[in-house]
Design brief:
Elements: H1 3-18, E1 22-24, E2 30-32, E3 42-45, E4 60-65, E5 72-76, E6 82-85, E7 91-95, E8 103-110, E9 116-122, E10 136-140, E11 146-150, E12 170-175, E13 181-185, E14 194-198, E15 204-209, E16 225-230, E17 235-240, E18 245-250, E19 255-259, E20 266-277, E21 280-289, E22 295-305, E23 320-326, E24 334-340, E25 347-352, E26 359-364
Antiparallel strand pairs: 1-2, 3-26, 4-5, 5-6, 6-7, 8-9, 9-10, 10-11, 12-13, 13-14, 14-15, 16-17, 17-18, 18-19, 20-21, 21-22, 22-23, 24-25, 25-26
């Protein structure tokens, strides 16, 4: 072997150890891998997660990681509806409240006054829940007390209104760079299949859907928009569940593409993990499962481009994936939500249905080495 190929080989090995997000050519140039990492992790279920505690799980709907505290939050449709855990599964705190009917998602945001709020999409209540529940957004303070709402909260308040706004089986909320709310509105058999942009007072600034809010499959049209995350380029990545895809749309409504490599699985869960600067990319995790419930779900990992000067996204190919057995239950069981530890790449899943606890899937790397964060 000549010295030049040897130098190239050593250079490529060093680059892989630094970022695993480049490929090498014989002319010593490092070029972006774009839609793939050189080698992704494998995953195994952690049977010890979560650790035994006073919390009993029943109909877990959502899991999310608080970026400030680093804690994992679990939302369920039973008491306590909100609980916080260390990432290795130790219970830290729990919130008991009667202000939630059928909570769907949980997220965090600090508003104009700077106070951190826990936002819950209260989708639709159980029949005997009474008034004050369902079809609205609710903001809670640190003690779990409801401090504000958007939309009329009531068992029979489901609607399509925009002025004033009224939701039907509202599913998730995120925030753009300007602090505006981005809301996915419409679950199974609901009135709506739309994404709305609102200010903090609940005024609708923009709405995207098929005509009449019916299910649609074109750009900015949806069939059960289930979850939304916003990236550093101010783009929404929307889990368009029954269209079996992820849509990428700017917070200004510009259409930037879609991911469609999920077969006939419903796309319900979405989260970002590690980020890199050279090239500018973030790892996007997408969770999908059979729409009829049960069976085998799957988590896909994509290298999502973060060059904000070129926001359009081609149909990326997953560089890694793993299967998730979904246990049978007395109700429809889905891979419903997901959170990711950006440092370890561990994946946390909320499996909706029965008394299933949240799951932790631990990432393992070849030779025990993972890409460094940038």
């Amino acid at each position: 072997m000549s010295r030049k190929p040897l130098r190239v080989l050593l250079r490529c090995g060093a680059l892989f150890m630094l970022s695993a997000l480049v490929v090498c050519r014989g002319d010593h140039a490092a070029v972006p891998a774009h839609a793939r990492l050189l080698e992704g992790p494998t995953y195994r279920l952690d049977p010890s997660f979560p650790m035994p505690s006073a919390v009993s799980f029943n109909t877990v709907s959502w899991v999310t990681r608080d970026p400030q505290s680093g804690l994992l939050y679990v939302l369920q449709r039973s008491q306590p509806p909100i609980s916080a855990w260390t990432m290795d599964g130790k219970l830290v705190s729990s919130v008991y409240t009667q202000s939630l009917g059928d909570p769907h998602s949980l997220s965090f945001h600090a508003g104009e006054q700077g106070a951190k709020r826990t936002w819950i999409t209260d989708m639709a209540p159980p029949g005997p829940a009474g008034t004050g529940y369902g079809h609205c957004l609710k903001a809670l303070n640190a003690a779990g007390k409801m401090v504000s709402t958007i939309g009329t909260c009531a068992e029979n308040s489901a609607g399509k209104g925009l002025d004033p706004v009224q939701f039907d089986k509202v599913t998730d909320v995120a925030w753009d760079a300007a602090g505006e709310l981005l809301v996915t509105d419409g679950d199974l058999d609901g009135l709506n299949n739309r994404v709305l942009k609102l200010d903090e007072k609940g005024t609708v600034l923009a709405a995207w859907s098929a005509p009449g809010d019916r299910p649609g499959s074109g750009p900015r049209q949806f069939n059960l928009p289930h979850a939304v995350v916003v990236d550093r380029c101010d783009r929404m990545w929307i889990a368009d569940a029954l269209n079996h895809r992820v849509q990428v749309i700017g917070s200004d409504g510009a259409y930037h593409g879609e991911l469609t490599s999920f077969g006939d699985l419903g796309v319900y869960a979405i989260a970002f993990g590690a980020s890199f600067s050279s090239p500018a990319q973030s790892v996007l995790f997408v969770g999908a499962s059979p729409t009829s419930g049960g069976g085998t779900g799957k988590v896909f990992l994509f290298a999502a481009p973060m060059d904000c000067t070129h926001p359009d996204v081609a149909n990326l190919t997953a560089f890694a994936s793993f299967d998730v057995p979904i246990p049978s239950s007395t109700s429809t069981t889905l891979l419903h939500s997901m959170a990711v530890d950006p440092e370890t790449w561990d994946v946390y899943l909320g499996l909706l249905g029965g008394n299933l606890p949240p799951e932790r899937w631990v990432a393992s790397w070849p030779q025990g080495k993972r890409p460094g964060l940038r």
